[in-house]
């Protein structure tokens, strides 16, 4: 007698590396974290355009709490190079595993969607692609070039760290995005448990290198709080970013995607975010966005306009 085991049709866990971990405790969300469920007409139109072009958005994949607000304004953050990441960060809801091959038509699909949505500002992010020789840098550059060919929209990119991918950063900077964003995500003491595949100082060096290659390019980075970090660690991180000449800092509350992910240690109250914002401006950032629901791409278009205005005002002072 032969027993056959179906290994194809059985659903694959979204996070296989976390599947057998014990459930972590969850904290009840405070009132200041709650958002309205999506469902407006414009939200549905945005969703239809994303589906029609066969695109992936980080809004959906990462379970962003602001998706209802952003998609109702036809703001979407496109995630390129597939929906599967080669890293397994403890905070992230994006699928992990071995990704498939790159879609050579994706740059044109993204450019067409940007034109159809009529975006004035677009954010392009990606999964980590440690399996690719350049980490996907050339694909990033092709997407930027394709958008430029069809639209006058300003372009913000949110990239992985391209760890040990020599030459990746110059390739992307040469494509001239308007904003180069790379998130530190958390303070260095939390990297082993929160972001084990990354290196804090490698991420800092990436941001510094962008400024060395193009001093006029806006740089941006973001972190989550509520992961167990200490206040003085956040302030030191601000100093590290300013030493790398980063222009824009975002700080938001970490929200636990599932009980298999890193627990929320604390819900940081709004007044603490306001204090972080005040301190960050005092340290010299051109732009700071700090609130419980702040995310890297939230209000990105409006923030970019303010960022340019802030630079112009400082230059004229």
Provide a compact summary of the structure.
This protein has 317 residues and is an alpha/beta fold.
SSE topology:
Elements lengths: L40 H12 L5 H4 L5 H5 L5 E4 L3 E2 L9 E2 L9 H12 L3 E6 L10 H14 L3 E5 L9 H6 L5 E3 L9 H4 L5 H14 L4 E8 L5 H13 L4 E6 L16 H13 L4 E4 L9 H17 L1
Parallel strand pairs: 1-4, 2-3, 4-5, 5-6, 6-7, 7-8, 8-9
Helix pairs in contact: 4-5
Characterize the overall form. Answer: globular
Order of helices and strands: HHHEEEHEHEHEHHEHEHEH
Q: Roughly what fraction of the amino acids lie in strands?
A: 5-15%
**Average pLDDT rating:** 88
Helices, by number, come to: 11
Throw out a few tags for this protein:
317 residues; globular; two-stranded parallel sheet; alpha/beta; 36% helix
Protein architecture, described:
The protein has helices at 41-52, 58-61, 67-71, 106-117, 137-150, 168-173, 191-194, 200-213, 231-243, 270-282, 300-316, and strands at residues 77-80, 84-85, 95-96, 121-126, 154-158, 179-181, 218-225, 248-253, 287-290. It is an alpha/beta fold and 317 residues long. A 7-stranded parallel β-sheet has the order 1-4-5-6-7-8-9, sandwiched between helices. A two-stranded parallel ribbon has the order 2-3. Strand 8, helix 10 and strand 9 (287-290) form a beta-alpha-beta unit. The longest helix is centred in the C-terminal third of the chain and has 17 residues, at 300-316. The chain is globular and about 45 Å long. The relative contact order is 0.13. The mean pLDDT is 88.
């Amino acid at each position: 007698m032969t027993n056959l085991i179906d290994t194809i049709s059985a659903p694959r866990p979204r996070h296989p590396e976390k599947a057998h971990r014990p459930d972590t405790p969850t904290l009840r969300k405070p009132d200041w974290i709650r958002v309205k469920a999506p469902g407006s007409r414009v939200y549905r139109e945005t969703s239809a355009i994303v589906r029609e072009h066969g695109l992936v958005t980080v809004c959906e994949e990462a379970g962003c709490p602001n998706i209802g607000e952003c998609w109702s304004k036809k703001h979407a953050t496109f995630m390129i190079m597939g929906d599967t990441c080669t890293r397994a960060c403890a905070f992230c809801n994006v699928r992990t595993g071995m990704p498939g091959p790159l879609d050579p038509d994706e740059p044109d699909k993204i450019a067409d969607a940007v034109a159809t949505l009529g975006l004035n500002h677009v954010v392009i992010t990606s999964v980590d692609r440690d399996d690719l020789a350049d980490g996907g840098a050339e694909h990033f550059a092709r997407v930027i070039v394709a958008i430029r060919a069809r639209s006058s929209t300003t372009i913000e990119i949110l990239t992985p760290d391209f760890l040990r991918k020599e030459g990746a950063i110059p390739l992307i900077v040469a494509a001239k995005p308007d904003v180069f964003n790379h998130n530190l995500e958390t303070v260095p003491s939390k990297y082993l448990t929160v972001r084990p595949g990354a290196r804090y100082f490698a991420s800092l060096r990436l941001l510094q290198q962008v400024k060395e290659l193009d001093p006029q390019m806006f740089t941006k980075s973001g972190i989550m709080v509520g992961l167990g970090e200490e206040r003085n660690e956040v302030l030191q991180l601000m100093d590290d970013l300013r030493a790398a000449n980063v222009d824009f800092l975002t700080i938001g509350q970490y929200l636990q995607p599932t009980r298999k992910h890193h627990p929320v240690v604390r819900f940081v109250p709004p007044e603490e975010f306001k204090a972080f914002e005040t301190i960050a401006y005092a340290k010299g950032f051109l732009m700071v966005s700090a609130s419980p629901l702040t995310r890297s791409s939230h209000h990105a278009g409006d923030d970019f306009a303010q960022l340019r205005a802030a630079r112009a005002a400082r230059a004229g002072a």
